[in-house]
Design a protein that fits this description.
Blueprint lengths: L7 E3 L2 E4 L2 E2 L1 E13 L8 E12 L5 E5 L8
Antiparallel strand pairs: 1-2, 2-3, 4-5, 5-6
């Protein structure tokens, strides 16, 4: 019999195993695409700041960073 745990978002916290997940780090991810066009460059990139959340059981996930540097 296998046990499956889900992630729940409640009261501003991501929950796993019944406990709030803590921030375990941050990263910057990139997504690149290329195509042929006379009006646009050959490659475009999108950058996404992320936070790594970890549960006490070892489960972790990466979410978009909630910090908004433009607003500061």
């Amino acid at each position: 019999m296998s046990t499956q745990f889900d992630v729940l978002y409640a009261n501003g916290h991501y929950m796993h195993c019944g406990e709030p997940m803590g921030i375990a780090g941050a990263d910057m991810r990139t997504i690149h695409g290329s195509y042929v066009s006379d009006r646009l460059p050959e490659a475009l990139g999108v950058y996404l700041a992320t936070s790594v959340l970890r549960c006490a059981c070892g489960f972790q996930m990466e979410i978009p960073d909630q910090h908004d540097p433009v607003a500061e």
